[in-house]
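In response to reviewer comment 3 from the previous cycle, which asked for concrete evidence that the modeling workflow produces usable outputs, we include below a single protein chain processed end to end. The sequence was submitted unchanged, and the resulting structure tokens are shown without manual editing.
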Amino acid sequence: MKMTQITEGTLIKVVVKPKSNNFRIEQEESNLLIHCRNPPEKGKTNKELMKELSKFFEHEVFIVSGLTSREKVILVKGAKIDELEFLFSRLESAGKCPT
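The workflow returned the following structure tokens.
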């Protein structure tokens, strides 16, 4: 998975799958796959994505690019890569992570 440390926090490339049965996070090959419940209309999926990932990471989350795409770059504000790698290691052992 592609992560980049910047002054404001960490950038992560994610792939979003809207209209899923429940919100969950999966590591699939080199991608972070985010399943969202809401449809991709009027920003509903993006709002759900930022809200649920903010809970999971315990940091504010912003979409930096890809507002109208399934492929997005998010900023986890104030987070360091090693902190996020620890959270992702839990995903690997569990396979998936519902929030």
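Residues 14 and 32 are 5 Å apart (CA to CA). We consider this sufficient to address the reviewer's concern, and the full set will be provided in the supplementary archive.
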